[in-house]
Amino acid sequence: MSADLRLFDLAGADDDLRFSPNCWRTRLALAHKGLPVETIAWRFTEKDAIARSGQGKVPVLVAGDKWLYESWDIAEYLEDTYPDRPSLFGCPQGRAGARFVNQWASEVLHPAVARVVVPDIPAALHAKDRDYFRTTREAAFGRSFEAIAAERDEALAALRRTLAPLRSPLAKQSFVAVAAPAYADPAVLGAFQWARVISRVALTAVDDPASAWVEHMLDAYDGLARSAKRMWHD
Ligand SMILES: N[C@@H](CCC(=O)N[C@@H](CS)C(=O)NCC(=O)O)C(=O)O
């Protein structure tokens, strides 16, 4: 039996617009485990709603009396709490490899994607989040959204160079975790789903091996990621 699971999931003005790369990692990990979850639309400024987790970012997964955060820690919790369900890591070496991939995505891929998609985000946000988002993100980037938007072509070219370590394996294998998706796949797909939901920009060219992998991942888990509402598309 699984405890009832609830996930605080970043949303835009529209409750159904779920655009957080880190929340998508957790949603796909839960789907991989076959665990149903109730998602709760959460906005950047609703810190009180997740205060019991002891920090201010999502994903936050509530499992019974546990308030879990950090997408990687949540993946490990799911793996260790539900060992009889499909494995997210496969083996200890698989866990270590997935951790490396996860960190690469968090520390290299997410900032590269952010430079491309951030200018599209304010239009999607709830009005109460707009000032907070602009202030915090402009401080983090050290320049205005207008300046970031002006560099978009350069940012997209830089992102495509950043994808090189992903592209060469995916030219030879169907998934990051090789023959079938495991956590390394959601760990990376989160960034692509972020862009897909919130931005008009296609991160990869059609003939990029990463594009075929994204399509496979959109279809995985009964098309969970593909069915997500998108800001700029029907
Ligand atoms: N390392 C964390 C990062 C979590 C994170 O940055 N979440 C963003 C949404 S994608 C957030 O909640 N930001 C809140 C804020 O900036 O105030 C993880 O992997 O879960």
Report on this structure.
With 234 residues, the chain is an alpha+beta fold. The chain has helices at 21-33, 71-81, 92-117, 130-141, 145-150, 152-162, 164-170, 184-198, 209-223; strands at residues 5-10, 38-42, 60-63, 66-69. A four-stranded mixed β-sheet has the order 2-1-3-4, covered by helices on one side. Helix 1 packs across helix 8. The radius of gyration is 17 Å and the shape is globular. The N and C termini lie far apart (37 Å). Glutathione is lined by residues 10, 20-22, 44, 56-59, 70-72, 106, 136.
Query: What structural class is derived from the secondary structure elements?
Result: alpha+beta
* Beta strand count: 4
Percent helix: 40-55%
Report the span from N to C terminus. 37 Å
Number of helices: 9
Work out the oligomeric state of the chains in this entry.
Answer: single chain
Radius of gyration: 17 Å
* Ligands and ions found: glutathione
Q: Mean pLDDT, as a whole number?
A: 96
Strand arrangement, major sheet? 2-1-3-4
Name the poorly predicted regions.
none
Q: Major sheet: size, sense and barrel closure?
A: 4 strands, mixed
Task: Write the element-wise H/E pattern from the N-terminal end onward.
Answer: EHEEEHHHHHHHH
Shape: globular
Strand content: 5-15%
Structure described in brief:
With 234 residues, the chain is of the alpha+beta class. It is built from nine helices and four strands.
